[in-house]
Amino acid sequence: MIEIRAGRPGDEPEILRVFAEASRAAWAHILSPDALDAYEARVELPWELEGMIVAEVAGHVVGFARTAPERCELHLLYTEPAAWGRGAGRMLMDAALARLAASGCNEALLWTEERNERPRRVYERYGWTLDGRRREREVDGSHLTELGYRFELAGSRPG
User: Fold this and answer.
1) How does DSSP assign 32-99, residue by residue?
2) Which of 52, 57, 133, 157 pairs as cysteine with 7 (C-beta 3.0–4.6 A)?
3) Percent of the chain, pLDDT > 70?
């Protein structure tokens, strides 16, 4: 059974593990192995545990999400590849959007890389829509094009 809870001190090693596993699986067709190594090496915790939501199965962290309420943004959402398709991501999304709504946001925003096809399908099935925002950036020598998505918090999402 998946439990969703607030992040707490001591979660950092498991959050980093999930981040590394998910990044390797999801970004391998976008970033070179060297760029992935450099990207992971730069990620340091603690990320602010405030705003961090964790999905746990039998005491084992299988995913996490982080919101940035000041920007009404779903900033991070990662689940370990073994948890893909098992509901943890949807539960994290539900909790993150509820947190943004409770903080006064009427809509939620997120960014994802244009070639990041699996997460884009997940977001779109959930009810997120492209909003026309686009940004370019470089990550360890790899060019990224990120697309903006928007989700109306006042309405209900598709089933």
Assistant:
1) -HHHHHHHHHH--SPPPSTTEEEEEETTEEEEEEEEEGGGTEEEEEEE-GGGTTTTHHHHHHHHHHHH
2) 52
3) 89
Number of domains in the chain: 1
Is 72:108 a contact under the CB 8 Å cutoff? yes
Q: Are the C-beta atoms of residues 54 and 15 closer than 8 Å to each other?
A: yes
CATH number of the domain within which 62 lies: 3.40.630.30
The region of weakest confidence among 57-71, 76-90, 99-113, 145-159 is 145-159
Per residue in 52-96, pLDDT (tens digit) is 999 999 999 999 999 999 999 999 999 999 998 899 999 999 999
Range of the domain at 83: 2-152
Q: Is 16 helix (H, G, I), strand (E, B) or coil?
A: helix
